[in-house]
Design a protein that fits this description.
Layout lengths: L9 H25 L9 H47 L15
Helix pairs in contact: 1-2
């Protein structure tokens, strides 16, 4: 497997990911405000349906906010990785040390 990296693209990708995270959080904030189910009528089925679905919104949005945080954290790491890559590539060895991540095979 070959991995081709263009270090000059990593800061641009970082900025794009940060914009995507901001858009995601904004969308989730707007959606969370109206996501609470409301009974369509006073009949038992409508009331019970709204109560049954009420518990799903909070875990969904909590997980989504956590994911958005990981997206932003990853975006912020791309610039230092780009600098490390460019520094090691100019000295003759294309080696990038991991920043807070470890992959166990």
């Amino acid at each position: 497997m070959t991995l081709h990296i263009s270090p000059e693209h990593l800061p641009v990708t970082s900025a794009e990911l940060a914009v995507a995270e901001t858009t995601l959080v904004g969308s989730m904030s707007a959606a969370a405000a109206v996501a609470a189910p409301f009974p369509a009528a006073v009949d038992p089925v409508s009331v019970l349906s709204a109560a049954a679905f009420a518990g799903y919104a909070a875990p969904f949005f909590e997980t989504t906010v956590t994911g958005a945080g990981h997206l932003l954290a990853g975006a912020q790491e791309l610039v230092p990785i780009s600098v490390n890559y460019q520094g090691t590539d100019t000295t003759g060895g294309a080696v990038v040390t991991p920043r807070g991540a470890a992959f166990n095979g």
